[in-house]
Amino acid sequence: MAKIDDVARLAGVSKGTVSNVFSQKRPTSPKVTERVLRISRELNYVPNHTARSLVTKKTMAIGLTVPHGNFFFSTFHNQFINGVVLEASTYGYRVLLDMIAVEEVKTPSLASYPIDGAIVLGPMLEDRRIQLLHQHQIPFVTVGQMMNQGIVDASTVNNDNEKIIHDICDYLISMGHRNMMFLNAGQQMTVSMVRSEAFIHALEKHQIGLQPHMIHYKPMVDYEESMRYGYEETYHTLSELSEQVTAIIADDDRTAFSAMHALKDLGYRVPEDISLFVICGDLSMMHQVTPSLTGMDLQPSELGVQAVRLLMHKLSVLEGEYRNHWIVDSRIIERDSCSLK
Amino acid sequence: MAKIDDVARLAGVSKGTVSNVFSQKRPTSPKVTERVLRISRELNYVPNHTARSLVTKKTMAIGLTVPHGNFFFSTFHNQFINGVVLEASTYGYRVLLDMIAVEEVKTPSLASYPIDGAIVLGPMLEDRRIQLLHQHQIPFVTVGQMMNQGIVDASTVNNDNEKIIHDICDYLISMGHRNMMFLNAGQQMTVSMVRSEAFIHALEKHQIGLQPHMIHYKPMVDYEESMRYGYEETYHTLSELSEQVTAIIADDDRTAFSAMHALKDLGYRVPEDISLFVICGDLSMMHQVTPSLTGMDLQPSELGVQAVRLLMHKLSVLEGEYRNHWIVDSRIIERDSCSLK
DNA sequence: CTGAAAGCGCTTACAG
DNA sequence: CTGAAAGCGCTTACAG
């Protein structure tokens, strides 16, 4: 590959001038610009990204780390990632995908992270990723519930999870449901704790006593098993219970699908016998199944966009004031899976 | 951040030695190793990835480019990406996600790609991404149908699309179906061309005449519209047709869901009135809906794994013989959405 | 608007 | 097993 010296020599200018033509950080005369560009084209020259990074100290990449474990994207993640990648490209940034946890610095061969900043999706308690980012002094923003873990000033973009749960409970309770089952996310997700608490508060607000069968947590397992979560919990809980659960709140669309499957096997109809509400699912897909699923629009793509904007502010790519915590709106999309008790 | 000179000075050794401790390319005495490591820990030192890359000429990252446009991942893409990221991490490689097309070199500020190789998902006719990769001399492997476009020796990982379509047609025809509708992928996808041809051949093989309503192509549009594709084509085709279509082959699970929706609105039952076969869908999700969907297991995760392995061979990270074209197996998973005519 | 020179933080022959 | 020095391919004050 041609390098800057080759272009400079053939164009009869200095390296600095060639650099300026490409970076546009200082003006160059039209004549020189055109000559340099022509030679560059002939030589198939393009500035070496790595060399540039070394001196500018910018990699023009941000890291996107998702929880470790045998993890698979949900449609929620899809749209979130879409928002991130598209918005990042607006500022000339690329996205480095890290699905497994940022590894321990166990092997000495580990080098620094070639990223200018990071977005941490679904922060967890004792999150190794956050500890390392902090230690390496890489600016980051978390998306999802952030608990205080000593890193006081963490920037975060999130939905208002308390409001979400209260809205859902108010909605279902207003329809006459008092025995609801909540298929929550995994216990290691900080979001699930906030949601459980809000769920309990919402019940109290309406003078409904909490019962053991009302809250379930997704086991932290592999893909296949997590697909069965909705089925297993629904099937076993409902078949062993004497009282009648009349509404189920499912953490995501997959959980909802598998819960529906269990309901069918148990002989229950949705929504005639049992209502089903999805917190975090793909709205289009939820619209296509039968019955179409009522749920909450969390705007995952918007979460991604706002996370990138916040990070760009922290990196001083974006000027002006900004808030360290950003809440993305959510609202109920009524469809056919919930009805009066 | 501390740099190699700081560590070298405090540890009383040369930079070269510090380098060796971290890269492990040359042995260092236990005493020195331990001292360097201790100092490094104290200073929070870690080798600068960019500086290392500049001299080794390796970024230890591969690019993953998906088709441009207003694109959203399907569950197929999810699992594929999973395979790629996990397998790449095995070799110490990270994955740079490019969702929009590798841009034209229109603005001169564009720098080289900081990747050692690339995986191109869903190659298209006149694929700009491939042209650029080729021009920048970045090794790449394509996943999905590759048509000859002057780049003769492109490495590729793929399913056997001809076999897939023949297997599906043989399966449905053996059940008595002769009037089948194929909701194919978008016309710009090379895979859809191969599948259409195979579909036509399969019909010929069984002496079934091709009719205009039998093949449809997903319009290249935004997310919302593509979700409607299955619905629209199914609804309009079936309501305007005098003869009876008895089986539908859907390109992916979303198309299948929305086709099912249309069938329900038209008063058809699956599979009693019309059978439904899904080519490329999330098997677990297809198992959870009612009726559970019969489809083809394309092993998307395995496609990702093999694509990375092939690329690692091309980058000489992996030693030994390898084939430039790799076919990943597929097989029919029988569930409840197809039945005898 | 342009050039000459230093420097970004590493690795790598070369020499011992 | 270790060190001294050159060099990876750019950008950036500094000077004009």
TrEMBL record, chains A, B:
UniProt keyword DNA-binding, yes or no: yes
| Alphabetical list of SUPFAM superfamilies matching this protein | lambda repressor-like DNA-binding domains, Periplasmic binding protein-like I
Q: Does the keyword Glycosyltransferase apply?
A: no
- Which CDD domains is this protein grouped with? HTH_LacI (cd01392), PBP1_LacI_sugar_binding-like (cd06267)
Pfam families listed in its UniProt record: LacI, Peripla_BP_3
Gene Ontology MF annotations: DNA binding
Keywords of this entry: DNA-binding, Transcription, Transcription regulation
Domain HTH lacI-type intervals: 2-56
PANTHER family, sorted:
HTH-TYPE TRANSCRIPTIONAL REGULATOR GALS (PTHR30146:SF109), LACI-RELATED TRANSCRIPTIONAL REPRESSOR (PTHR30146)
Q: What is this protein called?
A: LacI family DNA-binding transcriptional regulator
Give the organism, scientific name.
Paenibacillus filicis
